[in-house]
Amino acid sequence: MKSLSLVVPARNSCHFIKPFLRGYYKVFSEKFFPFELIVVCNGCTDNTKDICSSLTSEFPLKVMDIPKKGKGRALVAGFNIARNEILGFLDADNPFNLDEVKKMIDLLESYDVVIASKYKKGRARSQDSQFRRLISLGGAVVSLTLFNLRLTDTQAGAKFFRRRVWDSIDRDFICHNFDFDIEFLYKVGKKGFSIREFYIPFQYRKFSTVSLRYLPGMLKRLLMLRLLK
Is 31 exposed, middle or buried (0-12, 13-18, 19+ CB in 10 A)? Predict the structure, then answer.
């Protein structure tokens, strides 16, 4: 059995996170040993941290709390303390079938990084909102135009990789929010690591924190990253 550290970024997730964390632990602890589950509460203004901490009496769970908002900040904090051979993250609202996620992780036998894709040519569209489709399409276009990343979906909330990938890349990230995914993949590609997309149908959740107000900042940071490139 291979070891896995799963990081879950959580921003004001108190109303829904508990059953998803239970599901993550149940499914992945059966396949991976040791299995480490790390929740990073970032800039929460509700009792997400208390809800997560209450689960530590049920199963092993690390709960971090960082003051600044941003999915990217949460992931960097979580990966920096992760101890196992395989590292990865899933969103706090778990939009994917975990049996399919396990199949995706198995591809790390042949690839350095495996990322979920909600879209696949010839398949019906997944159950996604129009706005999230726009975000995914925009991410793919920006990734190709600015960084030559030929991927169909850079924004899906499921990515897994070998420890050597995290140990090898520059961890001084410019992109601290949902644009983190693009910068991470760009840095991975620069190092010559192999990336494989894996199609998993997406189930839309009403809990998404993606908002139009994030887009100007995301674009600004990605342009800064491109200029530094």
Answer: middle
